[in-house]
Amino acid sequence: MSDSIHAVTIVGARASGRVTRRDVVIWNLSVWWIFMAVSVVTILSFILSIGLSVIIGRDGVGPTPMTVILTGGFFGSIYLLNLYGVRLSDLQEASFVGLAGAFVALVTVLLLKSALNRA
Question: Which spans are transmembrane here (predicted)?
Fold first, then answer.
């Protein structure tokens, strides 16, 4: 497998049904690709978080925690999907899964915060 951006494929679960660390896509990328991916996602998440913080106002969590939530949700959803053995064959699929996971994580945190403020 090459060290290109298209290395976002999973080897698949082993015959025993267990997924090891080598089977997960994130560990198949080089350190520089992981660094670049985390940097780009964090920068874009921060820009989005600033805008969302202005729109949401006091009901939000602020731009920095929102950036952490979006970035963690992005990579966490890709990681969890790979642990279940789903193959992400190209960058578009991985991006879609990451964006969906990021916004699910953000909506979950915002709903929990609103429920706690209401109680």
Answer: 31-56, 68-88, 94-112
Q: Is 11 part of any domain?
A: no
Q: Is residue 94 part of a domain?
A: yes
Domain hosting residue 98, numbered range:
31-114
The model's pLDDT over 90-102, given as tens digits with 9 standing for 90+, comes to 889 989 999 999 9
Instruction: Spell out the residues 6+ positions from residue 37 whose beta carbon is closer than 8 angstroms to its own.
Output: 29, 75
Residue 50: inside a domain, yes or no?
yes
- Cβ-in-10-Å burial (0-12, 13-18, 19+) of 39 comes to exposed
What would the pLDDT profile of 11-43 be if each residue is shown by its tens digit?
444 445 565 555 566 667 788 988 999 999 999
Q: Give the CA count within 13 Å in the CB-facing half-sphere of 104.
A: 12
